[in-house]
Design brief:
- This protein has about 160 residues and is an alpha+beta fold.
- The protein has a 5-stranded mixed beta sheet with strand order 1-2-5-3-4.
- The longest helix is centred in the middle third of the chain and has 23 residues.
- The protein is globular.
């Protein structure tokens, strides 16, 4: 089963691929590597998951937002690459969590995105390196922002 089919089988709905709202590209391919800009947790209706983890929302709500940011990133990759099947492996995810000073479970929040990638691409291909950090604010008050680096299959 390919990645596009796996996504459907898991019952996930991709939001619309976001357009750049500044001077940047949502995704950029150089050689066999694809880099994505930071992605926010955009719902299929275009709304955002907002709130400070540890204050406005709990850890589980942060996890769900990270999963949604991952789905938003997959929408960008699908639009940019034509198919998620062009992805050879997840190389790195970098997650930022809007949280209180005393919240220390950023890795558990970013697992929402990491576990999504593992589900869609498999445990080997979908798990790469990762960083998860807490920040004092994120654009538009969203809970998380996540960027990724992906290795692409070479075209024959």
């Amino acid at each position: 089963m390919n990645a596009d089919e796996k996504l459907r089988e898991l019952g996930f709905e991709l939001p619309p691929a976001p357009s750049a709202v500044g001077v940047y590209k949502p995704a950029l391919t150089i050689g066999n590597m694809c880099y994505t800009s930071g992605h926010l947790p955009v719902l299929p209706d275009g709304s955002l998951l907002k709130g400070c983890v540890g204050k406005d929302v709990d850890q589980q709500a942060g996890y769900e937002a990270a999963k949604q940011a991952g789905l938003t990133m997959l929408a960008t990759l699908q639009a940019h690459l034509g198919s998620l099947d062009r992805i050879k492996r997840v190389v790195k995810l970098f997650g930022m969590v809007y949280c209180t000073d005393d919240f220390t479970q950023q890795p558990a929040v970013v697992n929402g995105c990491s576990e999504l990638m593992a589900q869609v691409f498999g445990a080997d291909v979908g798990v790469g390196t990762r960083s998860a950090v807490g920040v004092a604010a994120l654009p538009l008050g969203v809970r998380v922002e996540i960027e990724g680096i992906f290795e692409l299959k070479t075209e024959s």
